[in-house]
Structure formats: structure tokens, C-alpha cells
Amino acid sequence: KGVELYVKRDVGEKLSWWFSYSLSEVRDDIKSLYYFSEGVTVNYNEEFYFPYDQLHTMYLDLNYRFNTKWQFNVAWQYHTGWPFTGVSLVQRDIGDQTVFYLEADDPWRSKHDPFKRLDLRLNRKFFMSKGTITAFIEVINVTGAENIRNYEYVLVDNDGVLSIEKHTEKWFGTLPSFGIAYDYTF
């Protein structure tokens, strides 16, 4: 559920922009979860955040047309961090043995840091008798923001002292790209 605001404006022949903001919440009603590796079912009977819940989301897009052939674009996006499930190190005594293992926290209770990205793009159009060729060069994530995608947890034994190592998987950093598209006219 949520609400979205969207504003678009053309400023003369050369400049156009649009902005959107959404306030939303995505919840999932979980009755139980089956943990395959342990062969255990855990009953919850409650609502949890959905993995792609993002409370605040904003986009800003600016286009500048130098002329009919050249266009420059700046695109910015931001959203609050997605939920994830953390883990804890558990120690359990079973008879005369002590067992250590990783146990999942409540599903999707923790949140990643906010996601942010700034992209730049330059287009050049070539008008042909039977269509238009558009060539572009762009840089995605110009600022090199280190957006977190996921975590992986590993149980580590350092000379008998157990701990959790949290490995961070990130979205790509700064990524240049280019391409060509042909719009054929019949």
C-alpha cells in the first residue's frame, strides 16, 4: 500500500524534467517458514516486511536537448534500504557436547543502508531516409555509491573461538556503457 506523486514539466524546446516520490509499505503475512537445511518448520502467524519493501523512493530525471541531434540526460534515484534477515551465532549444549551454529533472526527485520545512484547519458541521433540511428554513451552510478545488495554469513573458527563473518555483496560500482539503436520507418 502507498501513495505516489509524479510531476513532469517541459521547459521550452530544450529542457524537460520529471520527479516522482512514493511512500509505500509492502508486507507479507507469513504463517510459517520451512528451513530446508535443518528440516524445521517455524510457525510465525504474523506480518513481515517483504524483501523489496522500500518506504521512501525518489526519482529525478533531467533532459537537455542541445538541438535535434544531441541530447544530455541526468538521472538520480534513491530509496530506503531493503529488509534483510540477519543471523546470530547460537551455542547449545547437547549432552556432553557443545554445538555452535548460525540461526536466522526473524525474517526481514533488519534494513540495508539506503540505495542511491546518479547516471549520466549523452545521445546522438543520425537521421536516415528510412529511420533514425541513435548512439549513446552513458556512465551508470557516476558517484560510485556502494549500494548493498545482500549479505552472506559464514561461521569462522579462529583457534577455537567461533565468530560470524559477514560478507557484503554490492551492486556494481561505476559502469560506463555505450550502444546503438535503429528505429526503422516503414
Can you describe this structure?
This protein is an all-beta fold and 186 residues long. It is 0% helix and 72% strand. It has no helices and 15 strands. A seven-stranded antiparallel β-sheet has the order 1-2-5-6-11-12-15, with no helix packed on it. Strands 3-4 form a two-stranded antiparallel sheet. A two-stranded antiparallel ribbon has the order 7-10. A hairpin with a 2-residue loop joins strand 8 and strand 9. It is elongated, with a radius of gyration of 24 Å. The mean pLDDT is 90.
Helix/strand-derived category reads mainly beta
The whole-number mean of residue pLDDT values reads 90
- Whole-number radius of gyration? 24 Å
Kindly, what is the distance between the CA atoms of the first and last residues, rounded to a whole number of angstroms? 44 Å
**Helical stretch count?**
0
Number of β-strand runs: 15
Residue stretches low in confidence (pLDDT < 50, at least 5 long) are: none
Strand-and-helix sequence, N→C?
EEEEEEEEEEEEEEE
Task: Write the topology of this structure.
Layout: E1 2-11, E2 15-24, E3 27-35, E4 40-49, E5 56-65, E6 70-79, E7 83-84, E8 87-94, E9 97-104, E10 110-111, E11 115-128, E12 131-140, E13 148-158, E14 161-170, E15 175-184
Antiparallel strand pairs: 1-2, 2-5, 3-4, 5-6, 6-11, 7-10, 8-9, 11-12, 12-15, 13-14
Question: Which features characterize this protein?
Answer:
0% helix, 186 residues, mainly beta, 7-stranded antiparallel sheet, elongated, single chain, two-stranded antiparallel ribbon
